[in-house]
């Protein structure tokens, strides 16, 4: 990394620690799949003579834990053990929220209360799931299902229970065996293991601190239990950069990163996918990841898949970490050391659908099929109008990834002789000529075809 970039990253992190009055701050960035820069500021025990954090110092990462639970749920979906449309009742019977789907809970669209019943779960000893379930009533349904974003820690407590029921073992064991061990994350644990930062509250009007309690959240653990380090989270970023297919396929990661319900709180564009926060930057880049907040700790974990970078920021304070530092670190990387894309290479064999490449018309709207390698294509508008989309080959069919045609199938229709007749896209017919009379057009084409207006 260039020395001038290192200096700018350090200056940004130092400013965040000093202006936020954070007892300590650890920050790092990921490039090419590894932690390429990190820094530690302040003292992890809150004393002037204490130790600075390093890349191996643990901080509680709060709601970044939710992304681990989401990964576990999506792994079960990849294995065919569950579907996102499954009602909660299918896997965890007996709650008042049995009609909420797993997908709605992942996206915070289930309408459930933000917090679990009982005392403030983040600062008090947790309870087993059976005891938590007994406290749940219809009063904890706050909004109609699927109508809007409403962040719910309780929803992720329920999702953690789904993982336990389907796997037949604690969700923490699943996280260790399916995520942590395959990635070599040896310093991510449910309780602190030295060296670890002490969590503090900082007095709003004086430069003094108060230690915050650290408890086992038990049934609510899936909402915010884990502790981790810069080194470990840099490895974890590989999952969301598409570099860890042994944990989760890149296709599933892309699905999780699609903005679903909008979070109307930020001044900018922000949304929630499947267990991931999604932020649209002013330059059009899309960042995914999650923030973390527990008494005594704040964290930010952001991934820029396009630039193949990630930022990690952790602090041991209940408040004070500015909300833009993670994105600012990624902006500095993009400006000073932009990602160099791999060199283009021709495919090793001729695509089987080469004959569908090129211009097509939906009625009179010009479009083009652009093949991308062997198993992907783009439908590209050639004029000011038209709906574009990306498609991938799934079990021999072309399935839309985004836009109006997300999830829709593009079929290649052939004549009895085997030649391509037209393309069928969600009942829309695409032909080689505008309203081609010889093609199969819904509603037909009036003879003799195109003619002068008068």
From TrEMBL:
Residues 15-322 form the Beta-lactamase-related domain. Residues 353-432 form the DUF7586 domain. PANTHER family: D-ALANYL-D-ALANINE CARBOXYPEPTIDASE, D-ALANYL-D-ALANINE-CARBOXYPEPTIDASE/ENDOPEPTIDASE AMPH. It holds the Pfam family Beta-lactamase. InterPro entries: AmpC-like, Beta-lactam-related, Beta-lactam/transpept-like, DUF7586. This is CubicO group peptidase (Beta-lactamase class C family).
